TrEMBL record:
Comment on bound cofactor: Binds 1 Mo-molybdopterin (Mo-MPT) cofactor per subunit.
InterPro entries: MsrP, OxRdtase_Mopterin-bd_dom, OxRdtase_Mopterin-bd_sf
Protein name per its UniProtKB record: Protein-methionine-sulfoxide reductase catalytic subunit MsrP
Keyword Signal set for record: yes
Role summary: Part of the MsrPQ system that repairs oxidized periplasmic proteins containing methionine sulfoxide residues (Met-O), using respiratory chain electrons. Thus protects these proteins from oxidative-stress damage caused by reactive species of oxygen and chlorine generated by the host defense mechanisms. MsrPQ is essential for the maintenance of envelope integrity under bleach stress, rescuing a wide series of structurally unrelated periplasmic proteins from methionine oxidation.
Coiled-coil ranges from the UniProt annotation: none
Residue ranges occupied by any Oxidoreductase molybdopterin-binding domain in the UniProt entry: 96-251
SUPFAM superfamilies, per the entry: Oxidoreductase molybdopterin-binding domain (SSF56524)
Catalyzed reactions per annotation: L-methionyl-[protein] + a quinone + H2O = L-methionyl-(S)-S-oxide-[protein] + a quinol; L-methionyl-[protein] + a quinone + H2O = L-methionyl-(R)-S-oxide-[protein] + a quinol
Keyword annotations of the record: Metal-binding, Molybdenum, Oxidoreductase, Signal
Organism expressing this protein natively: Polynucleobacter victoriensis
Length: 318
């Protein structure tokens, strides 16, 4: 993953590389260029040793302007490293991302402890541009790199009784100063219903903006579930457990009236402290005075996921 393509020094930033490729992908959409060309371009233009090659998946290309690399990597929620937005970027350098294993266990025929460097090769890496909306009322647009979590779940062969998937993050006070703070019941635990976890949109994520995940964004592996509030997208995952019971998730345990298990982005159901009707796009022109944008049901992914909830009252199952 850290192959050198013959370029040793460059001023090119991950964002510039992404923007150039984005233009090429736009051209590809109108038939002037092939996606393959965009991919070749990205490989040769990228010149940092933490780069991660991936093929852009045009199915998940958004016309929304991507949030800048700087904002994506300096305005974060990662309570294991502190509760302020700037804490993770400042504190996450103490996280050791090698060696790293992810244990896949529970109601499966093939449990396995994956070494991260094998896990990353399980399926071809794709670049997908997703919106991520935090329940606090802000959102970003991020070019992630990963593959559908379904690849990993299928490899584990869930048993007939399997209904849910639990995701557990690392909680090591030696590496993560925030774990000494009792804001949450550590380890950070999240969960999805098995069919949600198997949906093609659910991304097992290893990188962003053409490089491996920065530590503050959840290195070396995290989840991105773009139709749900950001907190469902657990960072720095060490365990994935297939179960027959709904997992007790950290935020729901800490404040059950504020956070539900499903946490689908829903502009019609407000959080007790934050409206979910509109959102502030981080980095938008005008800063905090930029006009708010309307939050879309399922964060704009209704077409792909609304069917998963067709017989459910989403006010009750928030
Ligand atoms: N382990 C862990 N995962 C986490 C969090 C956290 O505090 N710890 N915060 C969540 C929240 S509230 C959000 S909005 C997203 C933020 O992801 P980003 O900082 O990469 O944008 O990560 C989620 N994943
Ligand atoms: Mo969030």
């Amino acid at each position: 993953m850290t192959k050198n393509y013959g370029i040793t020094a460059s001023e090119i930033t991950p964002q510039e590389v992404f923007e150039k490729r984005r233009q090429l992908i736009k051209l590809a959409a109108v038939g002037a260029f092939g996606i393959a060309n965009a991919e070749v371009f990205s490989r040769h233009a990228f010149a940092q040793n933490n780069r991660l090659a991936a093929t852009a998946n045009p199915k998940y290309f958004l016309s929304d302007k991507p949030t800048s690399y700087k904002d994506v990597t300096s305005y974060n929620n990662f309570y294991e490293f502190g509760t302020d937005k700037t804490d993770p970027a400042r504190n996450a350098h103490t996280l050791k991302i090698r060696p790293w294993t992810v244990s896949v266990e529970g109601l499966v025929n093939k449990p396995k402890v994956w070494d991260i460097d094998n896990l990353i090769k399980l399926a071809p890496l794709e670049e997908r541009v997703y919106r991520l909306r935090c329940v606090e009322g802000w959102s970003m647009v991020i070019p992630w790199i990963g593959y559908s979590l379904a690849n990993l779940i299928k490899a584990a062969e869930p048993q007939g009784s399997a209904k849910y998937v639990e995701f557990i993050s690392l909680a090591d006070p030696k590496q993560m100063p925030g774990v000494n703070n009792r804001v949450l019941d550590w380890p950070y635990t999240e969960g999805l219903r098995l069919d949600e976890a198997m949906n093609d949109l659910t991304l097992l994520t290893f990188g962003l903006y053409g490089e491996i995940l920065p530590k503050q964004n959840g290195a070396p592996v995290r989840l991105v579930v773009p139709w749900k509030y950001g907190f469902k997208s657990a960072k720095s995952i060490v365990k994935i457990r297939i179960t027959d019971k709904e997992p007790a998730t950290s935020w729901k345990v800490s404040a059950p009236y504020e956070y539900g298990f499903y946490s689908n982005v829903n502009p019609a159901v407000n959080h007790p402290r934050w409206s979910q009707a509109t959102e502030r796009r981080i980095g938008a022109e005008g800063g905090i005075f930029a006009p708010k944008i309307k939050t879309l049901p399922f964060n704009g992914y209704a077409e792909q996921v609304a069917h998963l909830y067709k017989d459910m009252d989403l006010r009750k199952f928030f």
